[in-house]
Every structure is written in C-alpha cells, then in structure tokens.
Amino acid sequence: MSYFAGIDIGGTNVEIGILNETGDILGKRSIKTNSKNGAEDTFQRIWNTTKELAEELKISSGEIEAIGLGIPGPVVNNSVVKIAANFSWNNDFPAKALMEKISGKPVKVGNDVKLIALGETLFGAGKGYKNSITVPIGTGIAAGIIINGMILEGADGAAGEFGHVVVNKNGYKCGCGLTGCLETYCSATGIVREGKRRLKENQDNELYKKINGDIESLEAKDIFDLAKAGDKFSMEIVDFFCEYMAEGLGMLLNILNPEIIIFAGGVARARDILLDGVKKHLPKYALGMTMENLKFAFGELNEEAGIKGAAALVMNK
C-alpha cells in the first residue's frame, strides 16, 4: 500500500491529512500556521505533525511516498510561490525546496483554489467532467479551472484569478492594487461591506435588529440567513451580490464554455438562494449557448477538499 500526505496551508491554520492510494483520508490534524515565526518553523512543525499522525495510524514515515502542498497565491512549476501575500514570508518563496529539505520526500506545490478544483474533479462534485470551474467563495474569490482534464495554470501560475477582473473602475480599492475588482463585491468580505454600507443608511430592518445594532459585528451568514427567511432588506443585498457573481461567471462561460460550475467555500453554504440569484442574472452576461447544457453543483468535499486536492497533486498520474 502507498501513502501520501496532503497539506493545505492557510493564513491561520494548516490542515494535514494522510491518504491511501485510492484517495481515502486515513487521518487528519489541524495546527496553527504561525507564519510570523518564519517558514522554516512552520514547515518543520508540519512535518513533525505528519510523522506523529503516521505513527498513530501505524504507518512509518518511510512509507509516505510524497507530499502535496496547497498554498494561497500563484505557484510556478509546482515549486515557487510567486506572491506569498497571506504569510510573513518573502515573495518567490521556495516552498517545494524547503519542504523537501525538511522531510526528505518528493514534494509538489499548488495554488489552494486550483487544488480544491482538482480534489472535486477526482473525488467530488466534478467527477466525470473534463471541463469544470470550481469557485470557492470565502474571504476572497477565485476559480479553479479544469480544461480537458488538466488544471489551467497559466505562464506564471495566475490563471483563474477572476476575482481580480475589474467590474467597476470607480469602485473599491482591492488588496491586489487594482480598483473595483469582482472580489471587492463578490466575496464574504464584499457582501459584508455592502451590508454595512446599507445598514448605516437604514436601521429600520430585521438585519439591524438581528445584530442588535452592532454594525461592525455583521457577518455574511447573518445576511444570507435573513434573506432565506424572506427579509426584503437582506434579499436586496444578496441580489446585489448575485448579480456581480453572474457578471464574473458570464465572462468565464463565454471564454471557457465549461460543462459544470461548482461552488465551494463558506459562502456556498447559502446554497439555493445563491444559486437561484446567479441563475436569474446570468442570461444578461453569458451567451445562451454556454448555458444550454450547463450544470451547477456544490462542492462535496468541504474542508477535506484542500487536503485531497493537495494529495492528488502527487497521486494523480
């Protein structure tokens, strides 16, 4: 039996899993990233935890064939993280070389969103489709694009960053340096910003009551929960969100013509109210022929998507 480690490195937490050759997660652990202590410290703790997990599973570390790492930011040649924005590490960060030095194992590194897409393609909602787009919606938004069964990487690993398509040149400043990016409207951060803006102008609504007038405490879940319950004020905020999402997806449909779009991430838990809103607005932005046979789905792997996708990097032949 062959074993593989799948590791999903986030800005706050690292999810670590050991998988068998059929992609089953045999055991998993979560540790704090603590990137401020330096990359070497983080990667050493990841490998120590992986070895401890293997020991618990009665697997020797020597039986782990390879390690797949998922990490935010564009990744070049499954090796170097071009922009390590979520960490207190330098750009052009040599993630592959460092993990290989610490573990002594073959390592491949991939962008976290692309690996969620790969995980869903091999083990989840994208199984059986050669052309899919997976859109995790959380603090930001991006697209994991699979074309003819292969992850679309681009020349520098930046393919799929549709969250940075400019949809309003007079809009909000984005963390990437551009102004009016889709991500500033169409993410958990974006919908909360829009909700706060509207609450400052109108306090006569159920949303204001739900948060006891504490506008700064507003979360995306508050808005979606009340919208599902039929609250008009919250429904209008969700509709605003869904129209921007439809605009972004329309661009992708017209360029890539996928078979299926898979929503993942925290905001995707809103499910039908999100999907119905997107479908309502999509005909304004996408060619009719790209929607004729288009399927929609929600990610099936949830928090395991990053682990399975990372492992798939080194398992997938």
Written overview of the protein:
With 317 residues, the chain is an alpha/beta fold. It contains ten helices and twelve strands. The longest helix is centred in the C-terminal third of the chain and has 25 residues, at 232-256. The two termini are 16 Å apart. The mean pLDDT is 93.
Question: Structural class of the secondary structure composition?
Answer: alpha/beta
What percent of the residues sit in helical stretches (DSSP H or I)? 25-40%
Beta-strand share of residues: 15-25%
SSE ordering: EEEHEEEHEHEEEHHHHEHHEH
Unreliably modeled segments: none
> How many strands in all?
12
Shape designation: globular
**Biggest sheet, open or closed, and with what strands and sense?**
5 strands, mixed
Computed over alpha carbons, the radius of gyration is 20 Å
Number of helices: 10
* N-to-C CA distance: 16 Å
Walk across the major sheet and give the strand order. 3-2-1-4-7
Average pLDDT? 93
Please provide a brief summary of the model.
The protein contains 10 helices and 12 strands. It is an alpha/beta fold and about 325 residues long.
List keywords for this structure.
alpha/beta; 5-stranded mixed sheet; 317 residues; single chain
Helices, strands, pairings?
Elements: E1 3-9, E2 13-20, E3 25-32, H1 39-56, E4 64-71, E5 75-76, E6 80-81, H2 95-103, E7 107-111, H3 112-123, E8 132-136, E9 144-147, E10 150-151, H4 188-201, H5 206-210, H6 220-228, H7 232-256, E11 260-264, H8 272-281, H9 288-291, E12 295-298, H10 305-315
Parallel strand pairs: 1-4, 4-7, 8-11, 11-12
Antiparallel strand pairs: 1-2, 2-3, 5-6, 8-9, 9-10
